[in-house]
Design brief:
86 residues; 3 helices; 31% helix
């Protein structure tokens, strides 16, 4: 179900460095402005912003609370992502 994957051995640098996200964008042939990165930690958000991507914070089950004004999108439930895309 995935068009591309980037694993830890695919880049020399890792989150919060944007290298893995940039590699994924390259593999998909997608520009950062057209992508959304979803994660559940502050390093995920830092990596997304450094890559030039919007960030959606997946709050469910996260042990790393984030203020609602910090991410571009704050998701309380997985289906919230679908609602943002509509």
């Amino acid at each position: 179900f995935m068009a591309a994957t980037v694993l830890c051995e695919d880049t020399d640098r890792h989150k919060p460095d944007p290298a893995p996200l940039l590699e994924c964008l390259n593999r998909l042939g997608v520009e950062a402005k057209d992508a959304l990165y979803m994660g559940d930690t502050r390093p995920d958000m830092v990596a997304a912003r450094a890559a030039g991507m919007d960030f959606a914070y997946a709050s469910w089950g996260s042990f790393f609370p984030m203020e609602r004004h910090e991410p571009d999108y704050y998701l309380d439930h997985p289906m919230d992502l679908v609602n943002y895309l509509d």
